[in-house]
Design a protein that fits this description.
The protein is α+β, with helices and mostly antiparallel strands. The protein contains six helices and 23 strands. The strands form four sheets. Strands 1, 2, 3, 4, 5, 6, 7, 8, 9 and 10 form a ten-stranded mixed sheet that branches. Strands 11, 12, 13, 14, 15, 16, 18, 21 and 22 form a nine-stranded mixed sheet that branches. α3 links the parallel β12 and β13. α2 packs across α6. The chain starts with a helix and ends in an 8-residue tail after the last helix.
Length: about 450
C-alpha cells in the first residue's frame, strides 16, 4: 500500500517537473510566444486563417487610421519582414507585428514604423512597418495590430509574406511599373502606341496599379492582360481615403499624394525584387527611349558594365508638346482618326530645357539595391546613382506643353520614334483590330 502511494507521488512529481521545464523553455523574451488553441491549428484549406485578397490589397489596421498593403522578407536586413503601409502622420501610435508560420504558431513583436520622407505634406504617407524578431524566416503570414496580447482571431485579415526565397535568375529582364491609373483616362491610341513601342524596346512585363479608367481603355488593358505582357493590380484607394489627383496639396486637396503613387511605386519594387533584373518607374504617357541602342536590355548591359556600382540610373524627362504637329502629316493616318487619344507620331517637337529650372528624372533601377523610392529619385538605396547622358537615353513625354509660349521654330526636332515606324505601325494596327477599334479589312 505504502509502496503504491510512493510510486503515485513519484509519477506526479515527474509530471510536474516536465511541465515546469517545458514552460520555461518556451519563454522566449523579448518576443512573446503565442500558443494557438488546438481547435485552430488547421491547414490553410480549412479557411480558419483569413488572407487579405489580391482584389482588395488595402487592409485597414484595426483600431487605427492606418492601412497595410503587402509584406515582404527583406533579406538585405537579416530577413526582417517589411510591410508596405499607408500611415496617418497625425495619428501615430505604437504598432505590433504578429507573424505566423504554417502551423499557426505566432509571435508578437513591437513594430518599427518608418514614414517615407517624401509625403508632399499630405496627412497620409507611404511607409514601411519593419518587423524584426526570432524565427522570422519561417513566417508565412503577418498582421499589424495596435495591441500586444496573447491571442488573436485568425479571421482577422493577415498578409501573406512574399520574397521568402532569394533568386539570382529572373523571370523578366525589364519590368515597367506604372503607379496610378485613375479617373476617366481613356487615351487609347497613345497607350497602345506606348505599349507597342516598349515591346519593340525589349520590355517583357508592364504593371499598372488601376483605380479606374475609361471604357475604351479598359478593352485595351484586357487585351494586353490576356496577351501576358500586362499585370493589372487592383488599387481601390478611393474606397478608403480621399486621394489627391495631384502632388501639390495647395492645388489638389486630399488625404494622400496622387492616388497613392509613392505607395504603389515602392510596392512594385518589392513585388519584383526577385522577378525582374531591372524595374522602370514611369508614367503611361512616357517612353524611356534609348538613342544609341536598339533596345533597353542592350542599353542596360552597357550602362551596368561601365558603372558596376550603380543601382539607380536616372533618365531625363523631355516634353514633346501635343499642341505642336509635324508639318508633312506623314503619320497623320486616317485609320487612327476615330481612335480616342493622342497620336505620338505626329509630335516630334521637343521643348528645350528651362534655364535655372531643375529637369526632373525618372529611373531605371536594380530593385535589389533600393529600399525606398520617391517619384524622381530614390530615398534609401545601396551603391551609387548615375544620371544617364541626354544623348544616350531620354524620356519621350508627349503631353500638354510646359512652355506653351514657344513657337515651333524654338523647339527641337526629335524623330526617334519614327525609327521604329516600319514595325511599330503594323503592331499598333493589329492590336486595334483585335480589340475592335479598327476594321479587320483596314
Amino acid at each position: 500500500m505504502e509502496k503504491d502511494r510512493f510510486k503515485a507521488l513519484l509519477s506526479l512529481s515527474f509530471i510536474v517537473t516536465v511541465i515546469g521545464v517545458l514552460f520555461f523553455v518556451n519563454m522566449d523574451s523579448p518576443s512573446h510566444y503565442i500558443n494557438m488553441p488546438p481547435t485552430i491549428r488547421a491547414s490553410p484549406t480549412n479557411n480558419t486563417f483569413k488572407i487579405s485578397e489580391a482584389s482588395n490589397p488595402i487592409t485597414p489596421i484595426i483600431g487605427s487610421k492606418h492601412f497595410m498593403v503587402s509584406a515582404f522578407v527583406d533579406h538585405r536586413l537579416d530577413g526582417v519582414i517589411r510591410v508596405i503601409s499607408i500611415i496617418n502622420r497625425n495619428s501615430l501610435q505604437p504598432l505590433y507585428c504578429v507573424y505566423c508560420n504554417t502551423e499557426y504558431d505566432c509571435r508578437t513583436v513591437q513594430a518599427d514604423v518608418q514614414i517615407h520622407s517624401d509625403h508632399f505634406s499630405f496627412p497620409y504617407g507611404a511607409s514601411d512597418i519593419i518587423c524584426k524578431g526570432k524565427h522570422m524566416q519561417n513566417a508565412t503570414h503577418v498582421l499589424i495590430t495596435t495591441e500586444k496580447k496573447e491571442s488573436f482571431d485568425l479571421k482577422m485579415e493577415y498578409l501573406p509574406v512574399q520574397n521568402k526565397v532569394v533568386r539570382e535568375t529572373f523571370k523578366f529582364d525589364i519590368t515597367i511599373c506604372i503607379s496610378s491609373l485613375f479617373g476617366d483616362y481613356n487615351n487609347v491610341l497613345q497607350f497602345t502606341q506606348t505599349m507597342e513601342m516598349y515591346k519593340l524596346l525589349g520590355v517583357q512585363h508592364v504593371v499598372i496599379y488601376k483605380t479606374k479608367c475609361g471604357p475604351d481603355l479598359e478593352k485595351i488593358l484586357k487585351h494586353y492582360e490576356i496577351e501576358g505582357i500586362l499585370e493589372i493590380v487592383s488599387w481601390p484607394i478611393d474606397k478608403f481615403l480621399n486621394p489627391s489627383s495631384g502632388w501639390n496639396i495647395k492645388k489638389h486637396k486630399g488625404d494622400l499624394h496622387y492616388y497613392g503613387q509613392l505607395v504603389t511605386l515602392n510596392e512594385c519594387i518589392y513585388r519584383h525584387m526577385y522577378q525582374s533584373r531591372y524595374v522602370l518607374l514611369n508614367d503611361f504617357d512616357e517612353i524611356i527611349m534609348p538613342y544609341k541602342h536598339s533596345n533597353l536590355p542592350s542599353l542596360m548591359e552597357d550602362l551596368q558594365s561601365a558603372h558596376p556600382s550603380v543601382g539607380v540610373f536616372r533618365i531625363e524627362n523631355h516634353i514633346f508638346p501635343k499642341t505642336q504637329f509635324e508639318d508633312s502629316g506623314k503619320f497623320k493616318r486616317a485609320e487612327w482618326s476615330n481612335i480616342p487619344g493622342v497620336n505620338i507620331m505626329e509630335h516630334i517637337y521637343r521643348e528645350p530645357d528651362r534655364k535655372n529650372i531643375y529637369n526632373p528624372t525618372k529611373m531605371i533601377i536594380n530593385p535589389r539595391k533600393v529600399q525606398q523610392t520617391s517619384v524622381h529619385s530614390t530615398l534609401k538605396y545601396y551603391g551609387d546613382t548615375y544620371r544617364v547622358p541626354f544623348d544616350v537615353c531620354r524620356i519621350v513625354h508627349v503631353r500638354v506643353p510646359l512652355q506653351g509660349h514657344l513657337t515651333k521654330d524654338k523647339l527641337f526636332v526629335d524623330k526617334r520614334v519614327w525609327d521604329f515606324a516600319q514595325k511599330l505601325i503594323p503592331n499598333i494596327d493589329q492590336t486595334l483590330k483585335l480589340t475592335g477599334f479598327l476594321n479587320v479589312s483596314s
